[in-house]
Amino acid sequence: MTYFIDRRPNAKHKSAVNRQRFLERYRKHIKRSVEEAVNRRSITDMERGENVSIPAKDISEPVFQHGPGGARNIVSPGNKEFVAGDKIRRPSGQGGGGGAGEGGPSNQGEGVDEFAFTLSREEFLEFVFDGLELPHLQRKPLKSLEEVKMVRAGLSRDGVPSRISITRSMREAYARRIAMRAPIKRALREAIDALEAEERKDTVLRNPTRIAELKAEIERLEKRIAGVPFIDTYDLRYHQLSAQPQPSNQAVMFCVMDVSGSMTQNHKDIAKRFFLLLYLFLEKHYEKVELVFVRHHTAAREVSEEEFFYSRETGGTIVSSALNLVNKIIEKRYPVGQWNLYVAQASDGDNWDDDSNICRDLLVKQLMPQLQYYAYVEITPHDHQSLWHEYESVVKEFPERFAMRQIVEAGDIYPVFRELFKRRLSQS
Amino acid sequence: MSATRKRKPIATGSDWNFSVLERFDAELARLADEYRLDTYPNQIEVITTEQMMDAYASVGMPVGYHHWSFGKQFLAVEQAYKRGQMGLAYELVINSDPCIAYLMEENTLMMQVLVMAHACYGHNSFFKGNYLFRTWTDASSIVDYLVFARKYIAKCEERHGVQAVEQLLDACHALQNYGVDRYKRPSPISAEEEAKRQEERESYLQTQVNMLWRTIPEAPISDSPLSTGGLHADDDPLGLHSGGHYPPEPQENLLYFIEKNAPLLAPWQREIVRIVRKLAQYFYPQRQTQVMNEGWACFWHYTLMNRLYDDGNVDEGLMLEFLQSHAAVINQPAFDNPHFSGINPYALGFAIFMDIKRICDAPTDEDREWFPDIAGTPWRETLEFAMRNFKDESFIQQFLSPKVMRDHKLFLVVDDDQVETLEVAAIHNEQGYRQVREALATQYALSVREPNIQVVEAAIRGDRSLTLHHVQDSRRPLGRSVYPVIRHLQQLWGFPVHLVSLEEGRVTRRFHWPVEDESPAS
């Protein structure tokens, strides 16, 4: 007898839990590999998984085994020229014959001493951003035409038939039946007892009228019991739904970059990586992340991504122009109540001397109160200029939401990024 | 051939569908019946590649408890498959009733038919017939037991934390090859009973352990009604209150010993030890019948496929594809071939079974001399007898014929680390047959493949340390993994563990955990 079953529609990833357990257990190893990968790869290429190798000895599951040594008899196939009594020189490099299952080198690129496997993109990003947290991750509530989610909100006595809660209705009916029958039953029992007592009496002493009365009473009571309805509209209960506004799950990220003559392509590449990291990070936390690119020299302009990173301009630098533009865009398109706002700014630190304190005022008075977080990276090996110093005073005012770091070369990006978004433990 | 008999193949080409598979199965079932193959009902499940990798990772258990090692297994399989190092799943079949076999959706029609013949009729009848499987496993309850195990372990994880359970499982897995009584018939596992008895066992086990570790002797209570199973049924099972030494006999079943005697384990921990032990027991027959099991399955797929062809149910194209695949499966590279990785159990087993058939049908003088009992007997009965009553070790000892040794050009090398060179002790000739056969049979003996380790003493009156003996076989020492393993053992036992390697009664090496000072005090 044979049954055929098509299991293909069943869920795959039956091993997903085991896979997670494995990743969890070797977190440290994997994290090291991931960090190396982040520093090695270009950040544009964060969108794929990663091959990870762990030394096989670290993950072996030990069992008692024979070690090399002693005397062993080995039967092998494929004898060509040996006859009994032949002596063969021991193959070199296999001290004492090699224990069972010790394995030789592999010719497939990776040695068998490494346990290699592939992380999926999600797993990879999970490790990249492990231990990081979005500062002030307040989900902004409401949006006037907010999508609401219907959630169950207990039970009610009225509703549409399709939402009847059968269990609860039946339970109510049961309770009601018990409650309604109990006094009748008690009376019935009393009547029956009385009747029996009457009938036990000597024939002479019996009171026929009383017996007839009692019998009538019993009949009446039994009818009443039978008359208690099995279910009543009074018993019905309905699941109730209530509309719950969903917190806004969208964020917008402003990328602000200085494109004046002093910013070289190298600077921009570094900035780009930083922006990308931030983008991926936000994407993990919000369902929807919009990007706004603002570049500036002496004047700011909103541009496409392509233009943002690759077109060159020259000229001086006025940072406040960009901040003003960001402010305008927020006012026009991204009402604070509906969007989580993030700004990431990259620059080489140049600014017109007079402009830096304008920037500070703009930030402190207008921008910062609306923003979730402002990250500023300065890409320069040189000493800081006025902008940095002004920003330092912003940090003092908004220590939790304004962060700035210096990046000297590409290798710094990831550490700086981690530093900026490090999970802050028990901070008020 | 009877002058170009008209073929009416059930299907041609490489595509398949369920109705075609059903017709092939009906045909195979008819043939199997004709050959009197006794099988469990088949449950054939069609699955995707992903699902096959899942199944692989859980060593073919249709449901398994969660553990990182299965995740590791999965990643390894996935990687190997993606890199093309490994073709997935020639077959995967589970010793259960009904017998579950997996077919992968991207297999060709030929593959599906081949796997059905191989797994659903070959392996299936082996599971049902072979004495080891009959003794050690209960096919009808394994799936239920797995479900029980999974639920129980999940419950423990909830209550005691994933990490605690994981560490315990790690330790148990390290010892799972030592979870079988080799000489005692075990009681078959049954899930329902397990679940029912589990709670009462919890309390009972604890009292029994308490008994063992009790320091104040008490008057023995006569015959406890609970003390039915188990090695030591008395209330003072060990005679420890009357002095002496525990256990009275060395114990080879380390997990059983731990489950019953480890002083500090909580009841749920004992239950998990038991689960690992029971599952090890379930896989125990498979570890001892690789050559036979695969040989038997190959013999039958070969026989059945040829019958399908002879009866005109498959066309030449399918047959050629089959022969190519079959040849790959039973290929045995020579020892000096870069692809050599030991003896191929499919090849050896297939060769032996085919040869038994040959000896029955057309014995030579040599066969009459070597196999007077079976030469010229009806082959089907002889084959059945061979399948039912042996394991690899005894099967090879009994049935490996000079012809198979010659065909495979088997030779015996002695590798003794006290001698400078390897020596060819025997080859496939008149003088060598017996020695080669003997050596090959021994090579498949579990007692030789795995170090012989037994518990000899639990110092219940002293520091509660546990002492084990490793009896060396031809001076072969323990591998490097010994320390991690005794560390696991120590975690289960809770007190120091000593392992002593012995060669002919002489101590060659001592291992301790926790590691003792190795000051040259001795």
TrEMBL record, chain A:
Transmembrane segments: none
Biased composition (Gly residues): 93-106
Segments for region (Disordered): 84-111
Database matches in Pfam families: DUF444
InterPro entries, alphabetized: UPF0229
Domain of life: Bacteria
Family membership noted in the UniProt record: Belongs to the UPF0229 family.
Name of the protein this chain belongs to: UPF0229 protein HALTITAN_2078
Natural source organism: Vreelandella titanicae BH1
UniProtKB/TrEMBL annotation, chain B:
Database matches in Pfam families: SpoVR (PF04293), SpoVR_C (PF24755)
Domain of life: Bacteria
Domain (SpoVR protein-like N-terminal): residue spans on this chain: 15-447
Domain (SpoVR-like C-terminal) ranges: 451-503
Protein name as catalogued: Sporulation stage V, protein R
Native source organism of the sequence: Vreelandella titanicae BH1
